[in-house]
Write a structure and sequence with these properties.
It is a single chain. The chain is mainly α. The chain has one domain (4-159). Helix content is 71%, strand content 2%. It has seven helices and two strands, in the order ααββααααα. The protein has helices spanning 4-11, 15-35, 54-80, 90-99, 108-128, 130-152, 155-159; strands at 39-40, 46-47. It has a two-stranded antiparallel sheet with strand order 1-2. α3 runs parallel beside α6.
Length: 163
């Protein structure tokens, strides 16, 4: 095995990391779909996907899956390394922040009155470029995945693999 598959097999050979990735992805998926008003829990559990939200939904699904994988890889790297790099989680946090920004969802409507006309202008900007911001978040999460993969696949990590 070589490359990306090696680091994925190394991380996800442990059931703990598989479960962690699934839980993080599921929680992120639920939160983002509730914020985007696609998933409702009251009065009954309901999922509604209008045509105009399909692309945002697909991007959110990809971000949720990447978030789970990147989080598990970062936890693995933290457990295997003695000295922690400060930028280990920065890609994950930046990806989540850019994908879940308040202006990109209906949550932004609750924030508008606090900032007046500046808030309304900022919200209009974020809503206009919502898909681009979410695509950028996928790119940031892909960069975080690559960074974690590169960190795990170095020779010092390969020698530190528990038997």
């Amino acid at each position: 095995m070589s490359g990306t598959w090696f680091s994925l097999a190394l991380v996800f050979s442990n059931k703990y990391h598989v479960a962690l990735a699934a839980i993080v992805a599921a929680v992120f998926w639920i939160v983002m779909n509730v914020i985007d008003q696609l998933l409702f829990f009251w009065p009954v559990v309901d999922f509604y996907l209008p045509r105009e939200k399909i692309l945002a939904f697909v991007i959110t699904n990809a971000a949720a899956a990447l978030m789970g994988v990147v989080t598990s890889m970062n936890i693995y790297a933290l457990r295997m390394v003695r000295r922690v790099n400060g930028s280990l989680f920065s890609g994950s946090a930046l990806g989540v922040t850019s994908c879940a920004c308040a202006g990109c969802s209906s949550l932004g409507l609750a924030i508008i009155p606090a900032f007046g006309s500046i808030g309304a202008s900022a919200l209009a900007f974020f809503i206009t470029y919502q898909i681009l911001f979410r695509m950028a978040s996928i790119g940031i999460l892909a960069w975080a995945f690559y960074s974690a993969h590169r960190l795990i696949s170095t020779s010092r990590y390969q020698s530190a693999v528990p038997k």
